[in-house]
Every structure is written in C-alpha cells, then in structure tokens.
Design a protein that fits this description.
By secondary structure, the chain is of the alpha+beta class. About 55% of the residues lie in helices and about 15% in strands. The protein is built from 31 helices and 20 strands. The strands form five sheets. Strands 1, 2, 3, 4, 5 and 6 form a six-stranded mixed beta sheet that branches. It starts with 8 loop residues before the first helix and ends in a 7-residue tail after the last strand. The C terminus is likely disordered. The structure holds manganese (II) ion (MN). The site of manganese (II) ion has 4 residues, from loops.
C-alpha cells in the first residue's frame, strides 16, 4: 500500500491494521488470485470513499472493511462476499457504477452489489406495517436470487448497530426497531443464532435503555459468583470426559439480555428469579460418522453425575431443526439445587449453529472452505428460476421450509401478509381472511395458477381465493383445514346449513310420501330413519334435502317394508281427508297456472329466483330459453334446443312461458367446456392462464386427463353470459395443442 489515500498517518495505520486482519481470514480461505481480487476491492473502496467520513468522525472505509470482516469471520462467507462487502456502498454513495464493478470484477459480483443497493432502499426506509409486508415479499424474492445479498446486508446492519452510538437519538430508535422486526427474525430464520442475539440485545439497548442497563449491570455483578458456580458444576464432567479420552471443549454462554428480559416478562419474575442465566456447551472434536454416538456417550457421562429432567431432553441430532440446527440438549439438577441446561454437539454442529446457512452449505459442498457449497446451492436456485421442473419445485419447497421452520407468510393480491402454520392449505388462508370468504371459497389462484382449496401453501405464495355465492362448506373441507380457526368455522357452517335444510327436507319428504301413498306419520318417518341408518333428525332431513335420500330410496324402503307385516302402518289411509298443507300446495300450483306471467324476466338475484334453471341443459344468460310451470317443482327454465324442453312442450305446452334474460345480469351461471387436444407440457398451465386472465370467470372445477399422448379435459366455470363464453372458447381454441372445444351441459353430454 503505497498510495496516499489518507490524510493522517494515525488513521492510515489503523485502517491498514484492520485491512491486514481481514486479509488473515481471507488467506485462510482463498488462493492467491482471490486474495489479489480482495486487495483490488479494498483499494477501489478506499479510493472511492476517501473523502467520506462516518458520523462518528471515522474515515468511511472502516465501515466496509468491518462489514467484510463480519461476513467472513462471523457469518462464514467466502472471498466473493468479502469483495461485495468492501464495495457494498460504492455504487450507492460514490461515482462508481454497476458497469464499472462488472468490468473491474465479474457479473456475479455486480449482481450481488446491485441486490445490496436495491434492498438498502427497501430495508432502510421501512415505515408503516404495510410497507413492512411488501418489503418482506421483496426480501423473499431477493433470497431466491442470491442469499449472500441478505447475509452481507445482515453483516452491514450488525456493524451499524455496533456503532449506533454516533447517531442522533431519533435515528437510533428507527434503526433499532427496524432491526427488531426485520433483521433479527431474518437472522433467526437463516440459523445465525449469535448474530440474532446480538442484534436483539443492541436493539434493546436503544429501544429500552433502562431495561438493558439494569439487566446487563446485574449480569456483570453476578458474573464472578456465576463463574465459580460453573467451575464447581463442570468439574466432575470435565474429569469424566478426560478419563474417557474424548477430545472436547467445554464452554458456557450467558443468555442474551433480550432473552432474559423476555423470560422476566413472560413469567412475571425479577432478575434474581431467572435461574437459567447460562447454558453449558460441550463441543466434541469427532468425525461425522461418530458424532451421534459420541454425543450420546457424553450425555451418559453427564447424567452419571447429575439427574436429568426428562421433559427437557431435546434430540436435534436424530431429527435436526428445519433451519439446520443440530444439537443434543438436556437440563440437569446441580448439586446446589438448580437446573442447568447442557448442550452437547460436535464442532461441525456448533459451526452450523453459530453461522447457519453458510456453514451448512460449506459442509454440504466438496469440503473446501471457499463458498463452493453455497455457490452450488445458489446455482440450483438459478436453474430453477430458468427451468421449472418437478424436482426443482421439491427443492424450492425444502429451501422455503429451511428458512421458515414453523410459520409461513402468505400474501394477498394486495400485498397484505397473513401468517399461517406450516402445512396450512389454501382453505386455511381463505378462513384467515374472513369466515365469509372461507365459507364461499371454491378454489384458489396460487401465484396466478389455479389450485384446489386443499393445496398446501408455501411461504411467499401469493394467494387469491375464488368464491361463489352458491358455495357452502363441505364435510371433506374439515380434512383440508389445519388451523383451529378454519376447523371451527367449517363445523359451525355445516351445522347451520343442516338446520336450514331441515325445512326443505321435511317438505320434500312430505311430497315423496304423498307420491308413494305413504302416510306422513312419526312412526313411518322413524321406520325410514332406521332403514337409512340415520339417528339424528337434522342429518336425516339434510340427507333428503341434498338428495342423498331420494324418492327411489323411499320406494325401495316401502317395498322392503311391505314384504313384512307392517303394511297397515305404511299405507296411506284414504278415508282421511288430506292434510291442510297439501291442499294449500295444490292451490298454490293452480293459482300459478292461472295467473301465469306473460313473459318471464330472468336474471338478477339467483338466490331469490322463483324459477329453476334446468339441470339438463344449464341455461346461461344469452341462451334462447323457455319456461315451464310444472306441478310441484314450479317454474323450470330450459334452453329452447334442449331435448327435454321439446318433450315438455307436448306435456306442459299450455303452461309454457316465454322467457328472456335481463340485459345486464350480475349473476354468474355454471357451465362447462370440454377440451380435447395433444398432451403437451404446459398445456394445463396455458389453459388456466387464459381462464384466470379473463375477468369475471370463476372456475368451479378443472380436470384434465392425459393418456396415449392425448389430453381430455372438462372445465366447469361460472360465467356471466354466452358472449363471455364464446369469447373464452375462442381464445382457448387458439392455444397450440388444443384440437376441439365444446360446450357441455353435463360432464358426459355434449350440446
Ligand atoms: Mn453499509
């Protein structure tokens, strides 16, 4: 270093000293060529920042050098990250451009710097909670670009927090609270436990200065006493381990100020009553193939001396935590009568616990200490982004699971965030929005792709729930839901629905009995209930209402019954006058027949219609239609080309009513489309994309089967009119691979 970057000799010495220390770490991890690159990055940064000073008065270059040191020593990153850390503020704050960085180094480094520059805007100006949600989504997206961006950003924030004293108080508070709600959780998710603890403690120092001071003072005051206790406590363990000849290190770590404070708040106890102020850690130097066995051997030695508390045994060696944490934890009773937590782990496990992801991938790579493992992992993500395949999707699932072990974050189309437990389905999300949304859900668009309600969600998914006013919760939903909220609401809605069905069921049953000449008596109803093996009246009438028990069922029942000796009970006694309700029902039909409207206007509120759209041809607005008044069922509307309508003309011709649609129907109607085509990669995707792009189209079901190179599918949709349907069919017919599109009335019939 011969250039004259710095004014004062003393400052220059200090900077070079820090640079030297950084290079010691770099030289342990990288070859000569990489070391030269790091040197170049330092020179460029020093030159670019030479006139800048931090608020503390220090030369600015101290900051990037320190961030680089944290990145390599505390986060476990490699030379690439050191270079990026050194240059991280160069593009943002000096005349250098990204293009310069790319020319001077390489595109990969330029890309990370670009990410760092972009997220600094996101991170550092987060204000309200809604911006926070949006930021989180963007951070997630950044993560899949290059996780090093986040890791370096964490190193940057850690250094800023360590030097926060220099800033004005208001700025301190903003930065500290951002650290609490964004950076510390992020560090936790990435498995960087010690950085997470330090960030939390430093935040507490500024957000709750008196709490922080009190606890840290008390910790300091009790330190000597604690040290003596620990020495007494570990003495027998040390001896046993030495006797056993196991290569080990015993450490103890005082809990973070923040975690002590959290415990005091949660248990409502003073500092003096927090007993587990520290944990003892036994780290074994043992090869990977022996580590599990050795850790358990140590457990055995420890529990020879101290009685373990069985409900506190945690074996994260057999089953590691989702973020990669491996360790064996136990809590034992000391001779002085208090519980002490002991963590037993190998050196490899300890590095993973301290450095999280970076260490994890270091061990998963080819064993070299350069960030090869991480690079490999990142290139897999890049591949996935360019070439989505089933395998890659599985991998991404793992990745997301690793980051977010117990909770997932789901975004609404507007960017609001909902937190759900891992394993939650689209249905859980629907209920998390509102019970009305849940109860009326028919499907979901997950990242713009149509999926069933049972689909499990992944962190970062954007989900839109498709609803229909005609939907009601189904029994099977219960299995799709995991949250207590959704389960309770589904149960409640099903119960409410059944109650509503009782009236309909009763009326229907009365009609069926009349038709089959069975007397409507309690005894006969009871007999039928036994026959269909239904105990509860609510369930029974519900089954009738939803046509699970039909006239056919009752006919079969009456026939089987008549074979026995109960004929008298069943047969309707004709001598009796008909029940008053029945006569009024007759009259109602008669009056309907005489006072029939000249023309029926269809549309408007489908729930309040005094007509029924025929199941056989499923008319939708725009179709030519005709209405028939049928005894019992009332007005039924068919398409004029429906074979059943033609037949009805001969039977109910007199009661036929001209019908037409209102101009602007607000209601949506269920219709179906059958698709035939060539089985092609991406066909389903293309179809669903077209349908979901279409406004006002809701999919009720989508089923596409492939066999022998051909695809056959049926899509049931809610649409508002025929124009709309024609439009959609037209668009679909243009999809490469689709050979035939037809409208259907039922899944098996083509109109
Ligand atoms: Mn910075």
């Amino acid at each position: 270093m011969t250039d004259n970057y710095f004014d004062h000799a003393a400052e220059r010495r200090m900077i070079l000293q820090q640079y030297k220390e950084l290079m010691v770490s770099v030289s342990q991890k990288s070859d000569e060529r990489r070391q030269q690159e790091v040197k170049k990055a330092f020179q460029i940064a020093a030159e670019a920042h030479k006139d800048m000073r931090r608020r503390s008065g220090e030369p600015y270059i101290i900051h990037p050098v320190e961030v680089a040191r944290i990145a390599i020593d505390e986060v476990g990153l490699g030379a690439t990250s050191v270079i990026c850390a050194l240059l991280h503020d160069v593009v943002e704050d000096t005349d250098y451009t990204l293009k310069d960085v790319e020319d001077l180094f390489n595109p990969a480094i330029a890309k990370i710097i670009d990410g760092l520059t972009k997220i600094s805007g996101l991170f550092d100006h987060a204000g309200s909670s809604s911006i926070q949600a949006e930021n989180f989504r963007k951070i997630l997206l950044t993560l899949s670009d290059d996780v090093r961006v986040i890791l370096i950003k964490l190193a940057d924030r850690l250094h800023n927090m360590r030097t926060l004293d220099a800033l004005p108080e208001k700025k301190q508070l903003t930065i500290a609270s951002e650290t609490t709600y964004l950076y510390a959780p992020l560090a936790h998710r990435l498995g960087l436990y010690s950085i997470k603890n330090e960030l939390e403690d430093l935040s507490l120092k500024y957000t709750h200065p008196e709490v922080y001071q009190t606890i840290s003072t008390k910790l300091k005051e009790s330190e000597l006493e604690r040290q003596r206790f620990i020495n007494r406590f570990i003495f027998p363990i040390k001896k046993a381990l030495q006797k056993d000849g196991m290569d080990h290190k015993i450490m103890h770590r005082t809990k973070s100020v923040n975690s002590i404070w959290k415990k005091m708040k949660k248990k409502e106890i003073p500092f003096e009553e927090v007993y587990d102020l520290f944990a003892v850690r036994i780290i074994l130097d043992t090869p990977v193939e022996h580590e599990k066995q050795d850790c358990w051997r140590v457990y055995s030695l420890v529990t020879d001396h101290y009685r373990p508390r069985m409900d506190r045994l945690r074996d994260w060696i057999s089953i590691p935590k989702a973020n990669g944490y491996e360790s064996l934890h136990t809590t034992v009773m000391s001779n002085e009568g208090n519980w002490v937590e002991i963590q037993i782990r190998s050196r490899r496990m300890d590095e993973i616990a301290e450095q999280g992801f970076a260490a994890h991938y270091k061990y998963k790579g080819d064993g070299s200490v350069e960030d090869l493992g991480l690079d490999d992992w990142l290139s897999r993500i890049r591949d996935w982004l360019q070439n989505p395949s089933a395998d890659a999707l599985d991998f991404l699932d793992d990745f997301k699971l690793n980051l977010f072990s117990d909770e997932i974050y789901i975004f609404t189309p507007k960017g609001d965030i909902k937190t759900l437990p891992v394993g939650a389905s689209a249905l859980d999300f629907a209920y998390a929005i509102h019970s009305h949304v849940g109860n009326r859900a028919i499907g979901a668009k997950i990242n713009y792709k149509l999926e069933p309600l049972s689909k499990k969600l992944l962190s970062g998914d954007q989900v839109e729930i498709i609803t229909s006013r005609k939907q009601t919760p189904k029994e099977e939903w219960y299995q799709w839901a995991t949250t207590a909220r959704a389960k309770t609401q589904i149960k409640q809605a099903i119960r409410d629905n059944r109650k509503k069905h009782v009236d309909i069921g009763k009326k229907t049953l009365k009609n069926h009995f009349q038709e089959l000449k069975i007397e409507f008596t309690d005894a006969n109803i009871k007999a039928l209930m036994n026959y269909v093996k239904t105990q509860s009246q609510v369930d029974f009438y519900h089954k009738i209402a939803i046509k699970e028990i039909t006239e056919e069922t009752i006919k079969a029942f009456s026939l089987s019954y008549n074979k026995g000796n109960f004929l008298r009970l069943i047969k309707k006694q004709f001598s009796k006058s008909p029940a008053p309700e029945e006569s009024s029902l007759d009259q109602e039909i008669k009056s309907k027949l005489t006072s029939k409207p000249q023309e029926l206007l269809l549309g408007q509120d489908i729930d309040k219609m005094d007509y029924v759209l025929a199941e056989c041809c499923k008319p939708i607005p725009g179709d030519d239609v005709i209405g028939f008044i049928k005894p019992k069922s009332g007005m039924e509307v068919h398409r004029t080309n429906c074979p059943n309508a033609i037949q009805h003309m001969s039977t109910y011709g007199k009661s036929a009513v001209k019908a037409k649609w209102k101009e602007t129907p607000t209601v949506q109607f269920l219709t179906g489309i059958a698709i035939n085509g060539i089985d092609k990669v991406g066909l389903v995707n293309e179809i669903t994309r077209i349908i979901s792009d279409e406004l006002n189209v809701n999919i009720r079901s989508l089923e596409i089967k492939s066999h022998d190179g051909l695809s056959e599918g049926v899509i049931m949709l809610y649409l508002s009119n025929t124009e709309h349907l024609k439009n959609l069919m037209n668009k679909l017919s243009k999809v490469d691979g689709i050979q035939k599109i037809q409208r259907i009335k039922k899944t098996d019939q083509i109109v």
